[in-house]
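User: Quick sanity check before I run a bigger batch. Here is a single chain. Can you write out its predicted 3D structure?
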Amino acid sequence: MEKREDLETILAYLPVEIQGSSLSWPSSHLVEVLEALTEGPSHSRVDSGKTLSDSISDMRQALSLTSHFSDSALQGYTLFFDERMSKEESSRWFNESLPAMACLLLRFPSILELHYLSSENLINGTKTGLRVLGPKKAGIVFLSQELIGALLSCSFFCLFPVDNRGSNLLPNINFDKLFGSLINTARNEHQENKIKCILHYFQRLSSSIPPGFVSFERKILSLEQDTSGLEASPDADFWSASTVNLCPVEVHTSGLIEDQSVEALEVDFANKYLGGGALRKGCVQEEIRFMINPELIAGMLFLPAMEASEAIEVVGAERFSHYTGYSSSFRFSGDYMDTKGIDVFGRRKTRIIAIDALRHPGTSQYKLERLLRETNKALCGFLHVCKNQCIDHEDGVGVATGNWGCGAYGGDPELKYFLQWSAVSQARRPFMSYYTFGFEALHNLNQVTEMVISKGWTVGDLWKKLVEYSNQRLRSSKKRREPKLGFFDWLYGID
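Assistant: Done. Predicted structure follows.
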C-alpha cells in the first residue's frame, strides 16, 4: 500500500487495521452491526437513545475499547435522544442520518485507502497524506470532506482508541465527554445546542456529501538559522528594527469574525490543544467555531498541542449552522448554506488560523519574553508560508481578529490589539479587521488607531512604545498603590 510510512504514524489512533495490503475493520461483528444500522430501525432495532447507547457499547466491545469511557457517556446519549429531541427530529435521525453514517463507516477503510493513493499526486513534492503532524516540524494534510465525515462518524460512535493520545499531547476526539457532560449537572442548554450543531452536520451529510477538501497545516515560525544551526524566531532587536509600515485597520464594534465578507485569515482564539473544550464543556470563541464548522474537529485527531512558535492553519472547513448567543446563551438557530468560493484545490476560501495565547499571565504579560511570545505566535499564524505552495494566490487576504487571549484568558486587550496589529503588518497583510464584540475597554479604539497612524509609526516604532509602556507597567506593579494606566491613555500622554 502506498504511503505506508504516513499511515504508520496515525494507525495506532485509528480503529482500522492493515490486513494484507488493504485496510479493513478488525471485527466482523462490528461490520454486522454497521450493516444492520444501514437498513434502518426496522432492521437494526436502534430507534431510541437507549438502543443507540447499547449499540455504541456493542461496537466498542467489538474493537476491544474498554478503557477511558464512563457510564455517564452512554447515559448522555440516552438522555439526549430520548428526552432532549422532539419525536419528529428523533424519527428523522434514526431513519435517515444514522443509517447514512453507518453506510459511510462501512466504506471508511476504502475511503482511507483512496485518500493515501490520491495524496501521492495532489501537490508535487509535498506530503499531504493523513499522519500525525507533530511539533517542531511543518507539514500539511489534505482530507476530502467525505473522509472527514467518516472520521467524525467514528467520533460519534466513540470508535477511536485513546490509550496513547494524552501521552502524545493529542486532544480527545471521541464524543463521549461531549454527551457525558449532560449527566450529573444542572441542565445546560448551551451544551445541548452544541450537540444540535453537530447532529445537524450529520443530517446534512446524510442528504449530500460535499465533494471538496479541507487542509490542515502546522506552521512553524523560523526566519533563519542561528549560529548554532537551530532555527531562530524573531527577537526584540528584530522587532525594534522593523521598518514595515503599519497596515490599515477596520474596527467593527458589532459583527462576528466568521461573518466578515472579504477574504481574510479568520483567527481562532485557540487552546494549545486544538479545539480546546469543543468536545467537553467549553462554549466560547474557539468551541463555537468548531460547532458551526464541525470539519475542524477532524484536526484534533492528528495535531498535537502547539508549541510557542507554532500555529495551525485550516483552509476549506465548511460552515453548516447558524447560531445565537455566547457561552451559556449559545443556541443553534438553524441551517447555514456556505457560499464561500472554491480554490484550485477544491477548498472553500475560508482560512482559519489557530493561535493560542498565554493563559492567565497576570503582570508577567508585560515582560519582554512574554511580549515576544505573543507577537511571534501571531506572526507565525499570519505569515504566508511558501514552502508548501498550497495557497495559489494570497494577494488581498488580510486578517480578521478580535480580543485574542483576553476575557477568560486574562490578557490586556489594549496591549493585545497592538501586538496583533504589529504582527499583521509585519506579515505584509494588506489590512486587519478587528472585532471588539462590544468590549467596553476598546470603545475608543478607532481614535487611538487614527492617532498612531497620524504619527507615521512603523512596526519598529510601535514595538518600542509597547516595550517602554510594559517596562513602566512592571515597575508600577511593584508599587501597589500606584494606578495602572492603560496603554491607550499612556499613548495619549506621551509626546
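Residues 69 and 223 are 44 Å apart (CA to CA).

User: Great, the batch can go ahead then.
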